[in-house]
Amino acid sequence: MSMLRHGLQQTLCLRQLAKGQLLKPQWQRTSSHVDIKNISTSHQPEDDASPPENPFPGVNNARPLPVSPSYFSREPRFNDAYIKLSTLLQRYQHIPTAPPELVPRQVLAMVKRLHSIFPKMMPGEVKEALQEFKRDIDPYKNVAKVAPLDRFGRALGVGRRKTSTARAWVVEGTGEVLVNGKPLNEMFGRIHDRESAIWALRSTARTDKYNVWALVEGGGVTGQAEALTLAVAKGIMVHEPALRPILRKAGCVTRDPRTVERKKHGHVKARKMPAWVKR
């Protein structure tokens, strides 16, 4: 029995020795792999998680400040210009002003007082500030272009009123008027609207000299009739430019800019307020 026990111990020792020799190369390969990973050179920079340096010593919560004090207002550019002009006006309002014929008219009302300073005594900073508001426009060259007659002898006029738009082709004829392919009595039921549509012809006594073919769209009947007044007047002025003063005096040249005022929140209509109840 002792011999058998001694033989088994030798066998176990040899097995453990062989196992250690087999694991030794594997352990060396693992360590060499780790060494290669440690000494590998990569072109990707390592992430630096350190916080950036604070350029303001002693200040922990630094934030950028807006350039203009009007940054948080509704219209910062307008407020900056207003403050700048007000400061200049208070500083140089004692300088005498030039006569009206020496002061250009193409300036804003906001800078009119500064612009009226005598040119020889105007400071440089005032000239620099006013240069932003000037426009390089020649009043004698700013003339509205008149559309010529087409090859059929027609003149096109466009007019607008409220949300209505009218286009009228005016040609020499016998006084026929068609609006959207219909005569006046079918297109406009009210007499006032019919007179408004041909008021440019009636005011110049040309009701039997020109034919009108018009297209109107948008808005109501009254808006379409008044838009047609402006369109026909523009067509007549192409044929006879000398009638402009008469048409202007009759109110046919200037466009009416009035529109429907919008409804406000908390109001019944545009301006009507709800009835006040005490309890």
TrEMBL record:
InterPro entries assigned: Ribosomal_Su5_D2-typ_SF, Ribosomal_uS9, Ribosomal_uS9_bac/plastid, Ribosomal_uS9_CS, Ribsml_uS5_D2-typ_fold_subgr
Keyword field: Ribonucleoprotein, Ribosomal protein
Signal sequence region: none
Gene Ontology CC, one term: mitochondrial small ribosomal subunit
UniProt GO molecular function: RNA binding; structural constituent of ribosome
Organism encoding this protein: Colletotrichum higginsianum
GO biological process: translation
Name the record gives this protein: Small ribosomal subunit protein uS9m
Chain residue ranges for the region called Disordered: 41-62
Keyword Ribosomal protein in record: yes
Gene3D superfamilies: 3.30.230.10
NCBIfam families documented for this protein: PRK00132.1
Family stated for the protein in its record: Belongs to the universal ribosomal protein uS9 family.
Pfam family, one: Ribosomal_S9
SUPFAM superfamilies: Ribosomal protein S5 domain 2-like (SSF54211)
